[in-house]
Please model this.
Amino acid sequence: MNAHRARGRAPALAGGAIVVLVLAAAAFAPLLSPFSLAHRDDAALLTGPSPTHPLGTDEDGADVLTQLLHGARVAAGVGVLTVAVSLLLGLSAGLLAGYAGGWVDELLMRLTEVLLSFPGILLAILIIFVTQEPSIASVVVALSATGWAGYARLVRGQTLLVKEQEFVAAARCLGAGPIRIALRHILPNVLAPVIVQATFGVATAILAEASLSFLGLGPQGTPSWGAMLEQGAALFVKSPTLALAPGLAIVVTVMGVNLLGDALRDRLDPHAQR
Model:
């Protein structure tokens, strides 16, 4: 039994360790980086790994490890901020739809269905292309424009179940208003599955940001893993590390977040346990 539990904890510990390392790299990138972002080594253009440059350099002589560490800031920032904005909007819309019901519920759910039926990455590309301002803020807004819909539908379904419970009816009989009931009695009881979905949402946002940056629509003026991958793909034959480093960073980070999400699902959502 103990061995089985240990094996069950191993993926969660691995995922948590990866997430902590990525967050640490993002937080302390300037301290961990061997060079500054402005540094260029004119004597080492597009070189492979070496003692001076552990992951090599790009075609401008910039240190790949330095860019990789600073790219973690973009990935973590976009992932966390996108989920935070989407979660705030989704929780508000879902609680309102589930508790109010009627035409409010109908209107909000039809809106979420429209957004969920539209490919989120395409809408994000459209928003960034129209605004002509590819920055971290615009990427977060573009990804949150559709990201909130999934949370809204989940919260609405959970709210419909919880609001019929006896403790909600008791609070209503004691004179509690709709806002107090929604925030004090319903919200805490619908958070478990929402937290699980939010964890997976971080991984989705990281992949979406990398895709946008690969297409040249990501944040400008700062390194990002997607932009590094695009540069590395064009120069793969000359310097494979230039593409492999950001590619592995994306894969490992997304895997770590998903492993952590699986562990949270098994812990917080008993209906989803295998």
